[in-house]
Amino acid sequence: MLHAIPKPILDRMATLEAIDAADRQEGTPKAQRLRQIPPETGRFLTLMAASAPPGTVVEIGTSGGYSGLWLILACIQRRDRLATFELAADKVQLAQQTFAAARVEQYVQLVHGDARSKLVELERIAFCFLDTEKDIYLQCYELVVPRMAPGGFLVADNVISHQAELADFVDRAMADERVDALVVPVGKGLLVCRRA
Question: Hey, how many other C-beta atoms are within 10 angstroms of the C-beta on 172?
Answer without folding.
Answer: 16
